[in-house]
From TrEMBL:
Keywords: Phosphoprotein, Two-component regulatory system. The keyword Phosphoprotein applies. The modification 4-aspartylphosphate is found at D62. GO terms for biological process: phosphorelay signal transduction system. This is Response regulatory domain-containing protein. SUPFAM superfamilies: CheY-like. Coiled coil: none annotated. Residues 12-127 form the Response regulatory domain. The keyword Phosphoprotein applies.
Length: 137
């Protein structure tokens, strides 16, 4: 008989956003509304460093940032097989970019300004979908 160990299920969210006010607003919203742990990164490079250090259920990343774009963050999550979901947000997105993000495995693609209620529902859905992993095995 072989036991299958489920990976630990994190309720931690990583927000990768270069605009300080947006980064803080997203962090506060998710912590207050859902009680989740939220780490933040001011750019894709720092976001990738945090992804190497900790397990996340979800990454919410801006598309256009200095140093490393949201698409690069998305590609790295997929290439590393990290198992977390990625939501890409942007104020300057095109249909082409949205299609590309979804093709690369993004969970969703949102336009700024993001509707807080929609974001809360989306994050809650991601966390609920991951919850069965805790009892698998």
């Amino acid at each position: 008989m072989s036991a299958r160990l489920a990976p630990p299920v994190s309720r931690r969210v990583l927000v990768v956003e270069d605009l300080p006010d947006s980064r803080t607003s997203l962090q506060d919203l998710l912590q207050v509304a859902l009680g989740v742990e939220v780490d933040t990164a001011p750019d894709g490079v720092r976001g990738l460093e945090l992804l190497a250090e900790r397990e996340y259920a979800l990454v919410i990343t801006d598309l256009r940032m200095p140093k490393a774009s949201g698409m690069r963050v998305l590609r790295e999550v997929q290439d590393r097989g990290l198992g977390c979901q990625v939501v890409v947000v942007t104020g300057h997105g095109s249909v082409r970019e949205a299609v590309e993000a979804m093709r690369l495995g993004a969970y969703d693609f949102l336009q700024k300004p993001v509707d807080p209620e929609k974001l809360i529902l989306l994050v809650d859905r991601v966390l609920r979908e991951r919850a069965p992993l805790a009892s698998a095995g």
